Amino acid sequence: MDGSGYSWAAKAGDVFHSYYEIPFYHLIVEFALVLFIIKILMSKSTGSPGDETPLTEKEMEKLIAEWTPEPLVPAGAADREPPVPIITSKVGKYVTVDGKECLNLATMNFLGMIGKEEIEDAAVASVQKYGVGSCGPRGFYGTIDVHLLLEEKLAKYMECEEAIIYSYGFATVASAIPAYSKRGDIIFCDKEVCYAIQKGILASRSTVFYYNHNDLDHLVELLEKQAAEDRKNPKKARVTNRFLVTEGLFVNTGQITNLPRLIELKQRYKFRIFLDESYSFGVLGECGRGLTEYYNVDRRNVDMIVGSMEFSLGSVGGFACGSSFVIRHQRLAGQGYVFSASLPPLHASMVIKAMDYFDKDLFAKLINNCKVAHEALEAIDTITVTADPLSPMKHIRLIENNSEEALREICNLARDNNLAITVASYTSTEIFKKEPSIRLTVNTELTEEEIRSSIKLIEEVVHQYTSPAQDVSEES
C-alpha cells in the first residue's frame, strides 16, 4: 500500500513539475481552447428545420414580389458595346462593310490568300470528297489523310522533325502551354503577349513572372532573382521546370522579339523557349519561316514553335512544330487536340494549296509594303506609330486626347470614305491594360500608291476629327 501510494504521489509530482516547466502563454492558449470546446458542447441549438413555422401563401408571394435577382449582365452593358460592322463579301483586298465597298486595311490577310481561285477549288473538291466537317477528335475517327499530309508539309517547311495541327488557332498555344508547364513550374513571359498565351498560362497554374515588353534587361533581373531562390532550395530547383513564353511578332505592338538574346539567356539560365509565331509565320524571313529564319538561328534552339493558319494562310486552325519527343506529347496532353473535333478537311486542303504559293518574291513584296506604310505613317505629325517597320500590323494613336471613342469615330470617318480600318479590341480580363489604338494592316495585294493614298486619307480624317476641338480651344 505504502509503496504504491508513494509511487502514485511521485508520479503526480512529476506531472505538476512538468506543468511548471511549460511556458505560461502555452497554458493560457490551452485553457482558452478548453473553454471554447465547453462552450460549443453546452450551447443549445436554436431549433431544427422541422420546428420552423411554415410561411403562408400570402407571405411567400410578398417575398417573391420583393426579391430582385442580380443581373447576369450589368445594366447598360449592351448600350456601351460599339455596333458590329456587317460584312457581305469576301474579306479580300476589297470588303463590303454595311453595304459600302472599302479598300481593306483592317483584316490580317497578309499574303492575299483569301479569294485565290485555286485555293477555293481545293476547298470545293475537299467538300465533295470528305464532306464539310470531321465530327470527331483526332484520336476517335477524326484523323483524315489530308491532316497527315498537312502536318508532314508543315514539318518539312519549318525544317523540324514533326508538326501537329489544331482546329482552332486560339486553342493551339492555349493548349500547348499547359500540356508541358504544370503547377509548381515557372514561366517567364513578356507583358504584351496575346490573350491566347495569357489563357494558356492561366490554365497551366504555373508561377508566372512578367517582364516589361521587350525589356530583356528586366528579364535578366527576374532570372537572377529566381536563380538566387534556386540556390537556397536546390532540391526544389531540381524538380522545377522553367519556360519562357513569348511572341515572335507581337500582335499588340507590332514589334519583334530579340530571339538571339533569348537563346543566349536560355543557355545561361537553363529554361525552355516556347515561341508563338502566329503573326510572324509567312511574314518574317526570306522564305516566311518566321523568326528563326529572320535571325538565321538554329531552329533547334527553340523548344517549340506555335503558329496560326488564320492569317498568312487565310484558313482556320493552328499548328505546333518541334522535335518528335515534344510534339508527340501534345497528342496525349494537348486539350484542344484531344477533346476538340479535328480540323475540317476543307481547311486542311486550303492550307496545303496556300503553301504552294509561298515564294521569296511574295514575302519580299509584303515586307516592302510594310516599309512603305511605316514611312508614310511616321510622316503624320498628329499620331504616333507603334510597330517595327517590317511588321504588317501598325498601331496608330492620337498624340492628343487618344481614346477609344475618338479612334472609333476616326474609323467611321475612314469607312465613309471607302477605307476599312479598325480599332484594336481587347477583353476586360487582359492581365495588363492596353492603350487604345487603331490597328492598320498591310497585305501583298495593295500597291504602293494605294498604301500612300490610304494613309493620306487617314491623315485627313484625323485632322477632320481633331480640328473642331482645336478651333474651339483657339476661340476660347
Beta-strand content = 5-15%
Radius of gyration: 31 Å
Mean pLDDT: 89
How many H/I helices?
19
Span between termini: 111 Å
* Proportion in helices: 40-55%
Write the layout of secondary structure elements.
Layout: H1 2-21, H2 24-42, H3 57-66, H4 77-80, E1 94-97, E2 100-104, H5 117-130, H6 138-142, H7 145-157, E3 162-166, H8 169-180, E4 186-190, H9 195-204, E5 207-211, H10 216-232, H11 234-238, E6 242-247, H12 259-269, E7 272-276, H13 291-295, E8 304-308, E9 318-322, H14 324-333, H15 335-338, H16 345-355, H17 360-378, E10 383-386, E11 393-398, H18 404-416, E12 419-420, E13 422-423, E14 438-441, H19 448-475
Describe, in plain words, how this protein is organized in 3D.
This protein has 476 residues and is α/β, with parallel strands linked by helices. Helices cover 48% and strands 13% of the residues. It is built from 19 helices and 14 strands. The chain has helices at residues 2-21, 24-42, 57-66, 77-80, 117-130, 138-142, 145-157, 169-180, 195-204, 216-232, 234-238, 259-269, 291-295, 324-333, 335-338, 345-355, 360-378, 404-416, 448-475, and strands at 94-97, 100-104, 162-166, 186-190, 207-211, 242-247, 272-276, 304-308, 318-322, 383-386, 393-398, 419-420, 422-423, 438-441. The strands form three sheets. The chain has a seven-stranded mixed beta sheet with strand order 3-9-8-7-6-4-5, sandwiched between helices. Helix 13 links the parallel strand 7 and strand 8 (304-308). Helix 18 packs across helix 19. 37% of the residues are buried.
Descriptive keywords:
476 residues; disordered C terminus; 4-stranded antiparallel beta sheet; 7-stranded mixed beta sheet; 14 strands; alpha/beta
